Amino acid sequence: MEGFTKIIIKWSGKEYDIELTENDTVGNLKSAIQKQTGVRPDRQKLLNLKFKGKTPDDDCRICQLKLKPGFKIMMMGSLEEDIAEVNTTPENIPEVINDLDIEEEEIAIENQEVYLAKIEKRIKEYEIKILNQPREGKKLLVLDIDYTLFDHRSVAETGLELMRPYLHEFLTSAYEDYDIVIWSATGMKWIEEKMKLLGVTNNPNYKIMFHLDSLAMISIHTPKYGVMDVKPLGVIWGKFQQYSNKNTIMFDDIRRNFIMNPKNGLRIRPFRQAHLNRATDKELLYLSKYLKDLAKYCDDFSAVNHRHWEKYKPNKRRN
């Protein structure tokens, strides 16, 4: 009697359960995905489905893939109606509202003992896989992925269509002065897949020091917004003594993620609707110059108001 395999498809922010027999093929899987999502098989790109290190053919049987029950597959792919709409500029687009407009008086939480204790626990228990060793004398740049480097919700045929413009130029320039860390509020598997998809993992012009996932985050509580998961830079500083609030900056499209370190966070404009905006989005290009100025002329990053980064005028008489 043939067994059944349950597979979870992650697409467009949702998860879909699919059950197949061991003798079903990848082609059968794609047909089942189409029934649940509406995405045609020829539009589907199953990112982390591999057979002997390569993308399996449609006639490859599920049993050959040796998938564990509940294996999650990240899919990219577009609905036909969405593809028809991406070249049409929508009317009456609502203004994107910031997730939280956190003011300075609400930042007293950053030194509360209960949260400092959580950070200490992450420092002791969270294991960091070093991809490239820290370099002496470099600053630290911590980057989010979704809507910061990558539009993860828009339709596309390939990941490159959703990559923020000037990404590789930006990382190449930043790497001259900064060690670079990727920190996403997702799982490590998805981070690694996205970095491969964007061509970041093995780029010859720069290197990523390590990745951090949601397990490195902590939960905090604020009277106004309730419980939130945030990214405390203290987790990195506790493990790497050469980095501190004086030489670290974090880019994220969600301000609450750096509520524990408000003086070291820069809220980047979210990169959404990639097909409409990629021809005009120059955020990373402008931020490259800002990072250069900070590295060259600023002794203490926490002394700069990063909310007004576009108006920053460095004191060039330093040194």
From TrEMBL:
Gene Ontology cellular component terms for the protein in this record: nucleus
Organism per entry: Ignelater luminosus (Cucubano)
Q: Which keywords does UniProt give here? A: Coiled coil, Hydrolase, Magnesium, Metal-binding, Nucleus, Protein phosphatase
Q: Name one GO biological process term.
A: regulation of proteasome assembly
Gene3D superfamilies listed in its UniProt record: HAD superfamily/HAD-like (3.40.50.1000), Phosphatidylinositol 3-kinase Catalytic Subunit, Chain A, domain 1 (3.10.20.90)
Instruction: Name the Enzyme Commission number(s) assigned to this protein.
Output: 3.1.3.16
Q: Does the keyword Nucleus apply?
A: yes
Q: What is this protein called?
A: Ubiquitin-like domain-containing CTD phosphatase 1
Q: Which residues form a coiled coil?
A: 102-129
Record carries keyword Hydrolase: yes
